[in-house]
Amino acid sequence: MQANPASPNIKNIPQVYLEEHKGWQDLYYRTFEIAFEKIQRGTPQNGFVDFYMDEAFNPNIFQWDTSFIMMFARYGNKELPGIVSLENFYRYQHADGWIGRELREKDGSSYWPKTGSLEANCSINPPLFSWAEWQSYEVKGDASRFAKKINGKSIFNILVDYYDWIKANRRWDNGLYWATSYANGMDRSPRLGTKHVCEHADGSWIDITAQQALNAYYLAKMAEVIGEQKAQQRFEQEHAELAQLINAILWDEQDGIYYDLDKKGNFYKVKTPASFWPFIARVTSDKQELRMLNEHILNPQRFWTEHHLPTVAKDEQTYMKDGGYWDGAVWAPTTYQTIKGLEVKGYREAARRIAINHIEHIYWVYRKTNTLFENYRPEEVAEGVHARADFVGWTGVGPIAALIENVMGIQVNGANDSVHWDLALAEKHGIKNLHFGDNRIDLEVDDRLTPDSGARVRVKTNSPFTLLVSIAGVEYTQAVAKGEHEFTFANFEQGLSSLTLMHEGLLGVDVAGGDAVARYQMFTVPQSQALAGVDVKIQLHGNGEASPLLAKLYRVENGVPVGEALAQALVPAETVDSFYSVVHVPLQYERLSAQQPYAIALSQQDDSGKGYYQWLAGGNVYAAFVSGRKQAGQWLVDKNAKNAWLKLYLRP
């Protein structure tokens, strides 16, 4: 089904709801609105499909841009021309299997020559068509697309021929592949010491080698679905052989990461997200994954910058704090492929944290500019240097695809009529009008005391499907019939009394000695409740270098906390190191007296117990913990911030 560019309707896309992250909702819808503006119409001159998605900045279309655009366009129901946009490239495949990196929209011709010059080395892009096709298939559930004929050849055979062209023309005798900084899409990335963007430096490149393994992996899965057993066996073997080569030749055991090889067979030790493609290519071992995750991805001196993940590691000489385009900027495709790689290898929480951080930074820039950008700075909340605006474009994969898949945790499978919902958010949230296969569903979960608590879920569907719910690593299976239903999983425990304390009512008090500043919020126990405990649910922003957060409960006299703390809890630093982290601080104490004023005091401390941050907004103290951004050693929040809050869950 193709969209009508004259009338895409925001009401017809999936409708998301997040009770405590309304800003993410706003960004989600704004991203779709900009995407609607990028729908283009094919012409007799270019021979493209009737309607297609444009990459957002150039009179040409690009292979890997369009592949990543499809990753979020597949959720557009009929409002975006998603997977059909790839057919523009299929229509211009050469007889030998070659597909050009970049096609001119005026006439469909290739921007780069296939042979005969140095520039021919730049004539392809990362071979991601099969990955994109499979991701669309998981939503649409229509295997007949793989057999669809274009110029007399099935899409499956088009992709096989392209795989074979790359194997014949981009592979060395050692079995590894080569690219260039333009061919791999990471323009002027500091790889192998190349001076010209179309030089391959006689080196073996980790990203295209892993991408060919990824290509083989999904071609094997397609072949299985359409019953091509010989092709399935062939590509399973191709994948296994590439996995063995990648790990035998491109893995550096000393540094715990994959590198390119120079022409002498030595590691060219420059760390970029190209080294993370083996995750999603499914060629890594548990040991390799943990080393890359802990030593590189989660390392603040490398890729765990304030906005993660930069396109050059922070400890590299070429890294630039302002992003420098591909010299450290945060880009959607490299961030998304890392998120999805971590996800498929089972590191779902790390993937979720990166997704939240990425969306949050895009959101804060959007709040200032009302738009999205081509790339972002790694160490501040700002667009990158040399970053085009209104870029949707692949930037849409964060606010749309990663929000649905990794933050909300919803993975659909139209081929087997199932939904896997990884419930990692404790807030009330859901999605309506989500299409997959022949299904159209609404999902909603009530707020819970903690992300590990049981859940109460409401479902509405037009046809039967299977719902798989994961809570704290435990999976529950529920058959869902047509109609409306409510299900409870595990021991559902909702906050019977939920006090949302907005920033207007928050007070501040200095701690004696001047070494620290604590903030507290007073509250009164409702008369109708007999309560013996409280969970403090705190939404906060960190910068990747957070220290532990100390929460204390006090009685209040004459408007100020008095006496020793009734109870206290320390929030680990790792839970407060990204925007909008949600943590739960259990404070247990004797039964509270109704109508007795109490206060929750919060302070951020380093290991010495000092070095607290001040929380300021427009010169006035507003909140114990607020959503905001760090600048010049202080935490800032807009004076009229709607999302600054502290929520208390009072236990019975």
Main sheet characteristics: 5 strands, antiparallel
Strand content: 15-25%
Q: State the low-pLDDT regions, or none.
A: 495-519, 539-546, 575-581, 604-646
Based on helices, strands and strand pairing, what is the structural class?
alpha+beta
Instruction: Name the overall outline.
Output: globular
> Can you give the mean pLDDT?
83
What's the helix count?
A: 12
Radius of gyration: 26 Å
Helix content: 25-40%
Number of strands: 33
Gap from first CA to last CA = 52 Å
Order the strands across the largest sheet as they lie in space: 1-16-17-18-21
Explain this structure.
The chain is an alpha+beta fold and 652 residues long. Helix content is 25%, strand content 25%. The strands form eleven sheets. It has a five-stranded antiparallel beta sheet. A five-stranded antiparallel beta sheet has the order 23-24-29-26-27, with no helix packed on it. Strands 14-15-19-20 form a four-stranded mixed beta sheet. β31 and β32 form a beta hairpin. 49% of the residues are buried.
